[in-house]
Amino acid sequence: MAVGVKVVARPGSLKQQMYLPAIAEGMGVTFRHFIKNFVGNVTGNRDKTDIVTIEYPEQKKKYPERFRGLHRLMLRDDGQVRCVACMMCPTVCPAHCITIVPEETADGRIEKRPKLFEIDELRCVVCGLCAEACPCDAIRMDTGEHAKPTYRRADAVLDKEELMSRGIKSVAVQGGVGAFWREKPEVANTGQVQSANGSRSGADTVPAQIVPEGPPAGPVVAAK
Amino acid sequence: MHMWETIKGSFEYGHPGFTGLSALIKIVYLMLAFGPGLASILTWMERRQSSLMQDRLGPNRANIGRFKAWGITHFLADALKFMVKEDFVPVKAHKFLFALAPVLALAPALIVAAIIPFGAPLCWGHLTEIVPTGTCGQAVDLQIARLDVGILFYFAISSLSVYGATLAGWSSYNKWAMMGGLRASSQMMSYEVTMGMAVLSMFLIYGTLEPGAMVAQQGYWPWQWGIWGIPTALSFFLFLTAAIAETKRTPFDIPEGEPEIIGYFVEYSGLRFGMFFLGEFIEIVFSSALMVTIFLGGWHLPFLDGLADRVPNIAFVLITHGAWIVKVFLFTGFQLLIRWSLPRFRSDQLMQLGWQRLLPVSIANVLITAGWILYSR
Amino acid sequence: MAESPVPGSAPAPAADTVTVTVDGHAHTFPKGTNLLEACNQVGANVPFFCYHAGLSSPAVCRQCLVDVKGQPKPVPSCYTPVADKMEVTTNSAKVLDIRRQMLEFTLLNHPIDCPICDKAGECTLQKHYFDWDGKFSRNDGIKVHKDKVVDIGKHIVLDQERCILCTRCIRVCDEVAKSPDLVMANRGDHEVLTTAPGRSLDNPYSLNTVDVCPVGALTSKDFRFAMRAWELVATPSVCPGCATGCNIEVHASRDTVYRLVPRINPAVNKHWMCDEGRFTYKTVRQSRVVAPISGGQAVEWDRALDDAAAGLKAVLDRSPLGVGVVLSAQSTNEDLHALARLAFDHLGVQKAYVAGKDEGWHDDILVSADKNPNTAGAKAIGGGRLRSLADLSRDLKAGSLVALLVLGEEGVLGADPATMPLDKLDTLVVLACHHNDLVDAAKVVLPLTAWAESDGTFTNKLGMVQRIRAALAPAGDSLPGWEALSHLARRLGATMEFTTAKQVFIEARDKHPFMRGADWGRPILPVQLRFANSRG
User: Fold this and answer.
1) What is the mean pLDDT of the segment spanning B123-141?
2) What is the pLDDT of residues B216-233, one digit of tens each?
3) Which chain A residues touch B57 with a CB distance below 8 Å?
4) For position A197, what pLDDT does the model report?
5) Contact C111/A221, CB-based, under 8 Å?
6) What is the pLDDT of residue C418?
7) pLDDT in tens, A28-85
8) What residues of chain B lie within 8 A of the CB of A27, using their CB?
9) At residue B53, does pLDDT exceed 50?
10) Cβ–Cβ gap A31/B337 under 8 Å
11) What is the pLDDT of residues A91-135, one digit of tens each?
12) Distance, in angstroms, between C88 CA and closest chain A CA?
């Protein structure tokens, strides 16, 4: 026997080893359902409650809150892109689907920002590492939408404007939430829920990421 | 005028023109109309039946206006889709073999229909008269080719379809397709052995290889059909199992495994893929037809003994043909039931089942049948 | 650099050595060794910011404090020479605490804008923070703000907030470039780095300040925001900018060079290189010959080689005297050797010329007037046959040359192309890297790899044979010169069965005295900076 083969004990009795009784039983079940539904269809009084089909585009299942969907780029208060082109997301991306070309701005407030920010949704494996790696709450995957089907591959590459069109203003202080956020877990826990529902509905409700009380948040470069 | 007489004469019963033309009509009807037609409907039936078995809604999208008909138009939509989709050929594929493979998968499935009798013999010239069985002088068999090798022809041709799968896998220049093709060839070759062995005991019982003669030996009454009797029932079971494995359907769909394991036709698209797809369903139709012929009384209509002595020949032929169609249809439905009830075997289990279980049982079956026949004489 | 003795062994101290106990183990060091160097040589791993092995030691960062027995306070090890019977502790709880507190001081007003800082990933401050501190800031007040994005020179941008006031850059300007451009201004936490009044940081060695900066205070305009450091892969090589042959690392990512940085070689460039040399990478992929050309058409290699061989053969069959070769001072020793073997040993060519870039400016620090990396090698391999471009011009005008085989397109035409009547030639075969007028005039052009795509050796003006390594894949269909010449040789009936540059090197080393003792070096894997230590 080859190395590494694990021998699993098979069912003991002859009846089980034959499989045939179980096969007949299983086919009996499926046949019974077939007859029941067939007769129901023909006579027009099929029990609709046990139909498990969800007719997708018209009916939709409610996704869990942590569902990872289409990316979006969050916005600053003045509507500019929040991203500072730190390249954390393309670095961590296992599929190499994010392309960022940084640029310098004449505006003294922001030193670095993406000139080009493209995500190839065909390549994306929806792992969520980009959103996790982002130090600025700039990229999120909480839109609750799927990547749209396209006729051409190039159309699946979303550019900065398209990604920003779904973005909302994040209230997270750019650069972190202050010195003691880790030492006050009760505040952080209640405050840091990135409410996916609120943002998904498209309304103006912003995710409630609350700056902990007490010492003011450390000022940051970009907010200067 | 003389010429015309000669030509006309050659189309009289028994002459080459008549034989050729009748064969051509039968070929067109059975191989090009009935087989692909029923196969197309099966593609819908599979989805409809599985939905009913699984408490789902089933196909309900490809409606033509208000014409819904339980989604039967889906097979038309499928056909249209296959025709207009991009016909993709991998850059490094072997172009000729890549084109040949779907033909090799589809053609054998159609050709095997040649030996299958699909109705009682037609009595040429006495169509509207009552012709008792065996009294017709100008019989036209509803069978494309009455071959003495009969079922062996079926095996010979159907084993060619393994080339379709293997070449499709190899010529695609894709390692997954290659592996799928190898899985297909190993599986099909393994189960061909069991298939042949399973039907061998039926040859012993019937004493013939010719399907028409087999049907004739079975009677009208269901208990006169080939399936009854311990060795024959076993033979039926073995043959059915092997036939499902030959058509590469669940629980033996390891070569294709639509959702998870990539099959030999992964690089195919459009009409070429459609040929594989249709070929698989045509295989189901004609393997069902063969099993109906050997085990389920062929075109015999149950419970109506002596019908030939009461209705005109043409009506009798149509009734028996209808009975054959219904039997084949129900049997394909039975195959679909199996496909949607059983889980897939693992590759090693498949080989184990084929070589270590089914083959010894089928060989033992042949020996027991032979011994029983020897004893009962 | 001093050889580090085996830790733990303490032989009897000779006259010029001292014995120092570092963390309980006795070690022997030469007299005068810096204590910081000594500790780090034996693996004590003492962190530092302001100390630099190539510069003087001001002991301003206080990061390298260690405990010396008998001293009342911890001492800055970078400022302390070793003394006999010294007992040093670098890892006691007290020292670690001091180290952490010093780091906390340094970080007090640091903006921690690592996401937008070019130094992130190769930052000494980042490394020390993760190595020695790792705690969250206790500073909840407003940080001191200073000027960001200050344009202080042609190549450099200054961020005063990030600066940790280590003064390394000031010392580079003072001690290496001999151009005191930078100073510290103000005091306390308002102390900033700035340019001296009326000056800007424009000296020819200014980019060394970026290399030595332990944080992202000084960043190169050229590299700014171009690529994150951890995406780069470092390949050791030699600068092709001049005859000095500074040792460099080529930092490339996905087949693109992003910067060149100096590699330490005490015998050549120490820790430094000039700004001009740093930008030699810019031309690597500019106007490249990417496919063989024959008769003005891009063709397959086979066709081009056949045409080249046929053209040369037609002349050679009449007389080898009609054929000339041009050696380039830009080519590697291997390419030159392959050409020399083909032309002189096999074809019997008598006329050989040497070409290269024109002379330029120089100083007495690193920059040479000779702007070719391998003039010494070309002259040595060409030997006594070599003649100048003026001779080439004369021979062309006289019509004594019928065919010319040129290795390297650089500078062959000289300042005035009219002096080189190439139209008098029957056959002009050029092995070229970049397009220029010579390439346009050639009958057959064979594409060569650029220096950053080649393996080989350069001989600098001191006669040192130094290895260059391929950091990029060859552009287009280009081949190394020795390989192209081997193919050409085979078509001319010569046997040159080279399959690797190393084979050519070994043959050349055995033949040419100037290469004797040279070493090809072991194969090395390119180092991804993501897994390397900090730079600066």
Assistant:
1) 84
2) 888 888 888 888 888 889
3) 51, 53, 55
4) 38
5) yes
6) 81
7) 999 999 999 999 988 988 888 888 899 888 888 888 888 999 999 999 888 889 898 9
8) 337-338, 341-342
9) yes
10) yes
11) 999 999 999 999 988 776 788 889 999 999 999 999 999 999 998
12) 36
A26 touches chain B (CB under 8 A): yes
**Given CB atoms, is C228 within the 8 Å cutoff of chain A?**
yes
CB contact under 8 A, A219 and C142: yes
- What amino acid is encoded at C441 in this protein? A
Place of tokens 């650069």: A175
Distance CA C478, CA C285 (A): 12
Chain A residues with CB-CB distance to B340 below 8 A: 30
Are the beta carbons of A30 and B56 separated by less than 8 Å?
no
Whether the upstream peptide bond of residue B251 has omega within 30° of 0, thus cis, is yes
Strand partners, C251: C234, C259
Q: Which domains does chain A have, with CATH numbers?
A: 72-169 (3.30.70.3270)
CB contact under 8 A, A30 and B341: yes
**A touches B, CB cut-off 8 Å, minimum 3 pairs:** yes
Most confident option among B324-333, C54-63, C376-385: B324-333
Q: Check if C108 contacts A (Cβ < 8 Å).
A: no
**What is the rounded CA–CA span in Å between residue B317 and residue B325?**
12
A59 at interface of B, judged by CB pairs closer than 8 A: no
pLDDT interval class at A173 (50, 70, 90):
low
Measured between alpha carbons, how far is C169 from C173 in angstroms, rounded to an integer? 6
User: Cα-flanking dihedrals φ and ψ of residue A174, to 5°?
Assistant: -65, 125
Asked whether residue B315 is domain-assigned, the answer is yes
pLDDT at residue A111, as a whole number: 85
For residue B111, pLDDT over 80 is answered with yes
Average pLDDT of chain C is 89
Long-range contacts of B15-19 (CB under 8 A, 24+ apart): none
Confidence (pLDDT) at B127: 86
Residue C14 is predicted with a pLDDT of 57
CB contact under 8 A, B56 and A52: yes
Q: By residue range, what is the domain housing residue B272?
A: 88-376
pLDDT, tens digit, 9 for 90 and up, residues B254-276: 888 766 778 898 999 999 999 99
Per-residue pLDDT, C12: 53
Of A26, A33, A34, the CB nearest to B342: A26
Please judge whether A33 and B53 are an interchain contact, meaning their C-beta atoms are less than 8 angstroms apart: yes
Tell me the Ramachandran region of residue B134: left when phi exceeds 0, alpha when psi lies from -120 to 50, beta otherwise: left
What is residue A203's predicted lDDT score, i.e. its pLDDT? 37
Nearest alpha carbon to residue C181 among C166, C164, C198: C198
Q: Which residues contact C312 (CB under 8 A, 6 or more apart)?
A: C323, C347, C403, C405, C427, C429, C492
Ordered structural domains, chain C, with CATH: 17-105 (3.10.20.740), 140-226 (3.30.70.20), 293-515 (3.40.50.740)
- As to burial, measured by CB atoms within 10 angstroms (0-12 exposed, 13-18 middle, 19+ buried), residue A220 is middle
d(CA C226, CA A101): 8
Please state the φ and ψ torsions of residue C298, each to the nearest 5 degrees: -70, 125
How far is residue C431 CA from its own chain's centroid? Answer: 25
CA-nearest residue to A217 within chain C is C140
Q: Give the pLDDT score at B1.
A: 64
Number of domains making up chain B: 1
Q: Name the residue facing A51 among B49, B57, B337 (closest C-beta).
A: B57
Site from B50, B330, B341 to mutate, A interface, most A CB atoms within 10 angstroms: B341
Q: Which of B35, B351, B349, B31 is nearest to B190 (CA)?
A: B351
With a pLDDT cut of 70, the percent of chain C lying above it is: 97
